[in-house]
Amino acid sequence: MITTSNFARSAKHPDAVAISQGVPRWYKGRRYMPLAPPRWLLKAKDPELFDLEYRKQLEALDAKQVAGDLGPDAILLCWESFNVRCHRRLVAEWLEEKLGIVVPELDHERSESMRFSEQPSKWDSEPTPERQSTLF
Predict the structure, then answer these.
(1) CA 124/CA 118 separation, integer angstroms
(2) In terms of Cα–Cα distance, which of 128, 118, 114, 119 is closest to 45?
(3) pLDDT averaged over consecutive 10-residue blocks of the chain (136 residues)?
(4) Strands (E), 1-136
(5) Is 76 helix (H, G, I), strand (E, B) or coil?
């Protein structure tokens, strides 16, 4: 079963597959760059733009091919903690929708994972340039 996790919890697992642009220096596992969001999108720090553009990236891929490339027991890794808005949850939902499979967070029931659209974004707490000028 394909699952998701983060580097802190699962990077040393033999089935780990990084789906992020960057990885920890010590990470020696597999990478699958077609699922990595582009750097420009990460730098935008805009959850709505991220959602729109990353979904376009996923739709350009063949889910069956991606699942085959990843392998049946792949653990998709990125940086974020469980239930913090992260592209790995969006990938999981995309695979679920396209392939009719369940993609839970490792060591969690699928029902424990918040939908991507409901997860809090780490960017929500960072001041945007417009808000930053009003803070001082």
Answers:
(1) 12
(2) 128
(3) 94 97 95 96 85 95 98 94 79 95 86 66 52 33
(4) 3-6, 16-18, 30-31, 75-78
(5) strand
